[in-house]
Write a structure and sequence with these properties.
The chain is of the alpha+beta class and 143 residues long. It has 2 helices and 7 strands; from the N terminus they run αβββαββββ. β6 and β7 form a beta hairpin. The protein is elongated.
């Protein structure tokens, strides 16, 4: 009887470990190929997005003018990328893709031109032009 109980607990632990490992693998694959969560680092997109908002970015649709995109801050416009401190639990959640990484150094911006477009700043009224036409930003800029 005691031997059966031991096998039951061992079987439960084994099954739980398999489920947890499978969930971690699925979470990592989703983050790598389909969707990733980011933290908004600056106020450059206000009032559309505010500082410390979280956004989930899908990675499979091609870009179009007007889309909001996230990209790596390779030029360190945000300053020192190591300025955010967090604990071991947060590090584990960030690694698993369950929490956005505030130290990853990413920016979020709106696409105003795509391949082949000619973007020029600025016309006589101070507007950015794309392929000779003034960019209409009334839908997302506070004026």
């Amino acid at each position: 009887m005691d031997e059966e109980r031991g096998n039951g607990v061992g079987g439960f632990l084994k099954e739980t470990a398999i489920v947890v490992v499978g969930a971690l693998i699925a979470s990592t694959l989703l983050r790598l190929f389909l969707v990733q969560v980011f933290l908004i680092p600056s106020g450059s997109m206000e009032s559309t997005l505010n500082i410390n908002d979280r956004v989930a970015v899908q990675k499979v649709t091609p870009l179009q003018r007007g889309d909001v995109v996230v990209f790596r801050d390779d030029l360190e416009w945000l300053g020192n990328p190591d300025r955010f401190a967090h604990g071991p639990w947060q590090d584990a959640l960030i690694f698993l893709g369950l929490m956005p990484d505030p130290s990853a150094g990413h920016l979020i911006k709106r696409v105003i031109g795509t391949a082949g477009d000619r973007v020029v700043c600025c016309d006589v009224d101070g507007r950015i032009t794309v392929n000779g036409a003034a960019l209409d930003e009334t839908g997302y800029l506070d004026t």
